[in-house]
Amino acid sequence: MLESLVHSCLAGLSTGMFIWLVASGLTLIFGVLGVLNFAHGSFYMLGAYFCFTLLSLMGDNFWLGLAFGPLCVCIVGFVMERYFLRYVYHLYLPYQLLLTFAFVLIFDDLVKLIWGAGSIGSPTVPGLAGSVLITGRPFPTYSLFIMTVGPLLALGLWLILEKTWAGRIIRAASSDREMAAALGVRVPALYTAVFVFGTWLGAMGGGLAVPYVGLLTPGMGETIIIDAFVVAVIGGLGSLKGAFLGALIIGLLSSFGTRFIPTFDMFLTFILMAVVLLWRPQGLFGEAS
Amino acid sequence: MGRYLPHLIVGLLGLVFVAIGLFAGRFVLYLTMRVMLLSIFALGYNLLLGRTGLLSFGHGAFYAAGSYGMALFYLHVSSDPLLGIIAGLALAAFTALIIGFFCVRHTEIYFAMLTLAFGMMVFSLIWNLRDITGGDDGLVGIGRGPLLGFSIAKDSQYYFLVLFCFALTVWLIHRIRSSAFGLILAGIRENPQRTSFAGLSVKGYRLAAFVISAVFAGLAGSLGAMLESNTDPFSAHWTHSAEPVLVSLIGGLQTFSGPIAGSVIFVVLRETIERFTQNWMLWFGMILLVIIMGFRGGAMGAPERLLRRIVRKSREEGAS
Lengths: 289, 320
Prior knowledge:
The structure holds two protein chains of two kinds.
Chain A: H1 2-33, H2 40-57, H3 62-83, H4 93-115, E1 120-121, E2 131-134, E3 137-140, H5 141-163, H6 165-175, H7 177-182, H8 187-213, E4 215-216, H9 220-235, H10 240-260, H11 265-279
Antiparallel strand pairs in A: 1-4, 2-3
Helix pairs in contact in A: 1-5, 1-8, 1-9, 1-10, 2-3, 2-4, 2-8, 2-9, 3-8, 5-6, 9-10, 9-11, 10-11
Chain B: H1 5-23, H2 26-51, H3 60-76, H4 81-103, H5 108-128, H6 130-133, H7 155-178, H8 180-190, H9 192-197, H10 202-228, H11 238-251, H12 258-276, H13 280-294, H14 301-319
Helix pairs in contact in B: 1-7, 2-7, 2-8, 2-10, 2-11, 2-12, 3-4, 3-10, 4-5, 4-10, 7-8, 7-10, 8-10, 11-12, 12-13
């Protein structure tokens, strides 16, 4: 009994950290640009496919694929922000959301065209492939790896945003765009940079997902984007700390939900999202404005 | 002459629809019915988005409520299509009343996220409550009993029921838009604060618009269940909820006929593109991009403006 609880906990934490990898970029982009990006799931998907292709080209070296795959997706993110999104910031909300949704449709089909509509099995990572015994039961090593990467990413983002010059400017532009512009910050360029960085985070999540989810399918972005939305909402839209904690909550909730009430597992997640939106729209860990 | 132009256009279009029902082959008949169902869905939806200014990402849930309400009624109670549709509408309205009660507390992005959450809750219920809803298979074998003594079993007969509902929807939406109620909704979109200062309950009106749009979604859903003779759990999924948004946008958010034109474009485009390639979403996405980047009035934006100008001019001439 105890060991199975421990394993549910571990599975929940690793799922949570996995969602966090994707939700971080979404939250960063929303926090700074104020755009809820449906296409973030597509960046995740593109990241996975690019990493997969590159690692097969480079002699099945997972780390090389992970290093270069997300960079390719950054180009896509750059084009999307610089030539499209930039022109709709001032528009009515549906236009922004639907612009990103149009990209979801385009990317989904492009992936089908390039890589085929079927699923692709992914390779394992040497050194992280097996499992380790925890309380007498095997637990995938790769999940442990994800559980380490997640907090490291959080730490890295925190350091960048709080301790560096670039982070200060990003925070300034996100709290008052006009004031930052008046003080000489090139806000449009900054927006592009943040969007590309967010893209990189999403694609990185996809790259790391390659061995984690096992299968690559053209629709993989649509499932994860909703999880990422839920996490971002629960933590408070735009709050990275909130997204991190929100991801842990959702991970644990879904892992224990699957275990104890499998019928209402998915329902539980969305009811939590709705309750948070109604009770604390700024998120569980956000500050009221 | 010009002032009767709108009536003339509506009359001609009506004739075209009747002619399709009388003479068209099975495929065109089916496509036209799909266009009309999507139009009903989108016309109701645009009352909320275009008129009241609320972006819902959960209207698929009400479409599904309509279809499952209708299907469950057919399978467990009676095969009467009229009562079935009423059951579907009732379930959709009931669901919308509960969901809307919570959702209208917010606007903008929070409203969109709340409706998304509730819509996905409905989806997860349909998906997981296998015993009632059939889970991922949906409910199958929904037939069409006689309607007031007339058989509607054949598609060519059923077409006229759909056409009737479509015409009824167009008429109702037109009445709602030009009523005091419709003007208040537009007032809420433009300036909720002033509307509330005028002594009107903004939340109450938003809820009313929400439920009305959901009832039309339910109508489309229950007619859809009879057309396909099954229900699809994915009709409650958020990707389906995005459909009326896209359709309204293609046709033009601030127009009356936009959702209809958008539905025609959506369905016809899909069929045409799918003949040549598997990748219709790619082309559709690009068309969306073009519309959002350059033609935000939508397909009907300019034509409706032109029509209004002609009507106004001829009225002025008549007066002088």
